């Protein structure tokens, strides 16, 4: 069993920055591909970013390219999402997710249902 706990959300003005953290329990974190998703009211949960368990491969949804950076520290069992140049449309609950069945050190997925562990979410609100 894996538990994921997100932190770092909050209220920020447009153009500002936030850094989300996701702390994971479990000794096999270093073999999980990790992802960040977000869900705004009335919308489906959408992919934001993903990282392979080695950290060598990453992916982003187009709307955050050049603004968000996903990273991980396997020694600390933590994955991060650095969010810069935030926009009001980035407002959502952000979720961390783990894919325990990731195959290969450069594997990641953008697909919600391929992640088998989820955090409780952290609210990010960007004011205009």
Can you tell me about this structure?
The chain has 128 residues and is mostly beta strands. The protein is 0% helix and 46% strand. It contains no helices and eleven strands. The strands form two sheets. Strands 2, 4, 5, 6, 9, 10 and 11 form a seven-stranded mixed β-sheet that branches. It is globular, with a radius of gyration of 14 Å. The N and C termini lie far apart (40 Å).
Number of strands: 11
The biggest beta sheet is recorded as:
7 strands, mixed
Secondary-structure class = mainly beta
Shape category = globular
Can you give the mean pLDDT? Answer: 95
Mind telling me the C-alpha Rg? 14 Å
Please report the number of helical segments: 0
> Helices and strands, in N-to-C order?
EEEEEEEEEEE
Termini gap: 40 Å
The low-confidence parts are none
The share of residues in extended strands comes to over 45%
Instruction: Please bin the fraction of helical residues.
Output: under 10%
What's a quick, concise take on this entry?
The chain contains no helices and eleven strands. It has 128 residues and is mainly β. Strand 5 and strand 6 form a beta hairpin.
Topology:
Elements: E1 4-7, E2 10-13, E3 18-24, E4 33-39, E5 46-51, E6 58-60, E7 68-73, E8 78-83, E9 92-99, E10 117-118, E11 122-127
Parallel strand pairs: 2-11
Antiparallel strand pairs: 1-3, 3-8, 4-5, 4-9, 5-6, 7-8, 9-10, 9-11
Properties at a glance:
128 residues, mainly beta, seven-stranded mixed β-sheet, four-stranded antiparallel β-sheet, 0% helix, globular
